[in-house]
Amino acid sequence: MLAALRRLTGNAVELLHTRLELLIAEIEEERTRFVRILLLSVIAAFFLSIGVVTLTIFIILLAWETHGLLAAGVLAALYLGIGIALALSVRNLAKTRSKLFSSSLAELKRDRDELAS
Predict the structure, then answer these.
(1) Distance between CA 75 and CA 55 in Å, rounded?
(2) Percent of the chain clearing pLDDT 70 (strictly above)
(3) Residue 107: which residues within 8 A CB-CB, separation 6 or more?
(4) How confident is the model over 13-53, as pLDDT tens digits?
(5) How far lies 65's CA from each of 52, 58, 71, 97, in Å?
(6) Which of 71, 83, 88, 117 has the fewest C-beta atoms lying within 10 Å of its C-beta?
(7) Are 56 and 75 in contact, with CB atoms under 8 Å apart?
(8) Which helix (H) or strand (E) segment is 6 a member of?
(9) Cα-Cα end-to-end distance for the chain
(10) What is d(CA 102, CA 70) in angstroms, rounded to the nearest whole number?
């Protein structure tokens, strides 16, 4: 009886160890993904900002003789519209749940169901 209890305890510890390794792997993958997304986003935002400023100056200078103020107003309205749309998109993304730890939770649920039956 004592040997069976030791085996059961050993199996439980091994199972817990495996699940913790899976959890740690998921955390590491998510951290790496987040850092990569953040870095690429910052670089993209930098170059897009330079491009937008340059294009804005170009359009205003091109239309300066006839409709310079109108061009500046239209571009400002366009930028504000894009900014509002992106802010709403970010808000919607923030509301959705992350799938972080979904694999670990599914494995733990499966283990629990197997132990219960």
Answers:
(1) 10
(2) 95
(3) 19, 22
(4) 888 888 888 888 888 998 998 999 999 999 999 999 999 99
(5) 21, 13, 11, 52
(6) 117
(7) yes
(8) helix 2-62
(9) 21
(10) 52
